[in-house]
Design brief:
Blueprint (H helix, E strand, L loop, with lengths): L3 H39 L7 H8 L7 H33 L12 H15 L4 H23 L7 H24 L2 H12 L7 H28 L3 H6 L4 H23 L5 H12 L6 H21 L8 H20 L7
Helix pairs in contact: 1-3, 1-12, 2-3, 3-8, 3-10, 3-11, 3-12, 4-5, 4-6, 4-7, 4-10, 5-6, 5-10, 8-10, 11-12, 12-13
Length: 346
């Protein structure tokens, strides 16, 4: 029988091992993101040296290279990074909060709510910029509220919430299709390109909006992450450990919905990133959730997918959402098959 001091030593060693692994995973995924970011900025159809990149960054005007870097390569890499951070963190929060690997803003309809509201705002009212972002936020918040209300679970995370979200997403998809059939063909074409999820036309103003959102909300979500781990034990256990379940869930859901909605208003609903990032981060981290790792995984996924779509598929510049959609579909099927053995309705 181990003594109390020996047990405390074992616990301390386990905690140190967990922290060391988390740090190594964080550094490894961060290095991966930095590698794909550098490839996206420096390589491709127009190669830029590292020295020239920093000269351009500090104001030098190099013919052609400055335009390529400042108007195409760098904004797409930065936008992809911010979008990946936002979607990756959002997916990890939903999956931990609902205790289900299938839960993510796109699967439970939050992203579709933002998309439908933005499409209606674009085609019916001609909105863009901040007004379009506000419409996307309202759409995402309305769907999140509807999921909570219609699930009838009084805030408790259950499989029923996911089914309600999937149903709402299908209904909103039908609304989007109806808008496409009734609006002007040119407006429908613009909305369809945006709905695919693309970094092709992002501007520095839009990137600034995303950067401010991520800079404010990502640290808030990371701060609440320890409470999120308590919620994974169940509401009763969380309450026993001093975590107020309902306010914590409300803060987290509000933060991730706003972050995902604003990101969606800029780059569109990039498919499967929020679904993929969380499980990948959890697997790398030894089965433990990590919001920063999930965000970095999402950033690496989006930037890498944008590079593949731009340069590795012939002369066609494929939107990033097409690449993540193709890569994410088999992963979703794998999760669905695996979840049949583990998920029980609450």
């Amino acid at each position: 029988m181990p003594t109390q001091s020996e047990a405390a030593t074992v616990v301390r060693r386990v905690r140190q091992r967990v922290r060391r692994r988390h740090l190594l995973v964080l550094l490894g995924v961060g290095a991966l993101w930095l590698g794909v970011f550098a490839a996206r900025v420096l390589l491709g159809d127009f190669t830029v040296t590292i020295a020239d990149f920093f000269r351009i960054l500090f104001g030098a005007d190099i013919p052609v290279a400055t335009f390529e870097v400042m108007e195409s390569k760098l904004p797409r890499a930065v936008a992809g990074t911010l979008a990946g951070l936002a979607f990756g963190a959002s997916g990890a929060v939903f999956q931990s909060m609902l205790r289900n690997p299938l839960a993510s803003p796109d699967v439970i309809g939050v992203t579709m709510g933002s998309s439908a509201a933005a499409v209606v705002a674009m085609t019916a009212f001609g909105l863009d910029g901040d007004a379009l972002g506000l419409a996307a936020i309202l759409g995402g918040l309305l769907v999140a509220g509807a999921v909570l209300f219609l699930s009838g679970s009084k805030g408790v995370a259950t499989y029923r919430m996911i089914l309600v979200g999937v149903g709402l997403a299908a209904a909103l998809q039908a609304v989007v299709q109806w808008v496409f059939t009734t609006t002007d063909v040119y407006k429908a074409q613009d909305a369809l390109v945006w709905l695919t999820g693309s970094l092709n036309s992002v501007t520095w103003t839009e990137i600034l909006r995303m950067a401010l959102t991520v800079a404010i909300l990502f640290p808030l979500i990371a701060t609440l992450a320890p409470r999120l781990q308590m919620l994974e034990l169940g509401d009763d256990a969380a309450q026993g450990l001093g975590v107020r379940a309902t306010p914590t869930r409300a803060w987290l859901m509000g933060a991730v919905v706003v972050m995902a909605a604003i990101t969606t208003s800029v780059v569109g609903p990039i498919a499967f990133v929020s679904l993929l990032a969380g499980p990948i981060a959890r697997r790398l981290n030894g089965g433990r959730p990590s919001i920063p790792v999930a965000g970095l995984v999402g950033a690496a996924l989006v930037v890498a997918a944008d590079y593949v779509g731009a340069y590795l598929l012939g002369t066609t510049n494929m939107p990033v959402g097409v690449i993540t959609g193709v890569a994410g579909a088999p992963f979703l099927l794998w999760l669905l098959i695996g979840s049949n053995r583990t998920i029980k309705d609450g």
